Amino acid sequence: MDFSEGGYWLYAMKGPDGTDHWSRADFKSITPMKQFTALDAFCDAEGNINKEMAGSFWKIYFKESSVSTIVSIEIKFESLADLEQIVEMGFKEGFAAGLENLENLLVKL
Q: What is the pTM assigned to this prediction?
């Protein structure tokens, strides 16, 4: 991961059957401690984007309070069809599982 403007994160999501599903997030803007934006797309293990699959634009905000940090995530798609394609592939369930994993990790800290 190169967390800088113009950098990217190449990562694999492991499916229930053990299959790796590669994605790439290209960081567009970063305001330290406030927010960052990224274009996210499916790709191969080398980071070559699959243009046949829907991509998305992510904006992640951080708001600090005296006892916690609130994270807000906004995801935009080019079209309703792109959103429907991602939802059909199990995005909702996968995203929820990822957040649960994050919560479990943070509880241990």
A: 0.84
